[in-house]
Amino acid sequence: MTRSVKWILLAVTLAAATPSSGQARKLDAFLGEFQGGCTGSDEYGAFVASLGEWYTSSGSLQNPIVAPEEIKKAMGPLRAVDRGEYVSISVPLAGTFKGLPVSGLEFELGNENGIHTEAILFASKLSEVRRLLGRSVVASRKTLAKKFPNSVPSIDIVQEKGQVKILCILSD
Predict the structure, then answer these.
(1) In this predicted structure, which of 76-85, 132-141, 144-153 has the lowest mean pLDDT?
(2) What pLDDT is recorded for position 54?
(3) CA 92 to chain centroid
(4) Which residues form the signal peptide (predicted)?
(5) Which end of the chain has fewer CB within 10 Å, C or N?
(6) How high is the pLDDT of residue 98?
């Protein structure tokens, strides 16, 4: 089966599970302490790794995208765009993280290079996200420098094109 046929099958499968507004779930256990150093739970790590396996040129279509059932129920259809050097992946996600409404996740995963970004998208005002998570994000910058001594990772709360997010840049 070709990669594009698998993408279509995955989109159809996840579209059937598109969450309604009444299905928002607490995402704290899945996303872990993301704001404290770009690290989610083990399940989150496996999910991100499986996205890389599925979508990037260095990946294998033999392995499925993995996520806990409760998280799959909160997901909408994934969207991936190959941008040459990396794949941009958007994951609609209905839930809350640290009390804030979440609208999705975004990833940029490199095609056989070190490009790697992760973001949690919020359906909240920038000031509210900064008020609740800003101190953790600022404190985590030192943690990131120790965790990734051979690169220059960054984490910040930003607003891009009207979308508020915690953005982690973990590229080599």
Answers:
(1) 144-153
(2) 85
(3) 10
(4) 1-24
(5) N
(6) 95
- Alpha helices by DSSP H, the chain: 3-16, 28-31, 42-55, 69-74, 126-147
Q: What three-state secondary structure class fits 149?
A: coil
Q: Which residue type, as a one-letter code, is found at position 91?
A: V
The rounded distance, in Å, linking the Cα atoms of 105 and 76 is 11
Q: Is residue 119 exposed (0-12), middle (13-18) or buried (19+ Cβ within 10 Å)?
A: buried
83, with CB counted inside 10 A (0-12, 13-18, 19+), is exposed
**Three-state SS at 147:** helix
CA torsion angle for 43, 44, 45, 49 (degrees, to 10)?
100
CA 171 – CA 154 distance, rounded (Å) = 9
Mean pLDDT (whole number) for 110-127: 93
Reported confidence tier of residue 141, pLDDT bands at 50, 70, 90: confident
Using the predicted structure, report yes or no on whether residue 1 has a pLDDT greater than 90: no
Task: Report the Cα 54 to chain-centroid distance in Å.
Answer: 15
- How far is residue 133's CA from residue 166's CA, in Å, rounded to a whole number? 9
Identify the pLDDT of residue 112: 83
Residues 166, 32: Cα–Cα separation, whole Å: 13
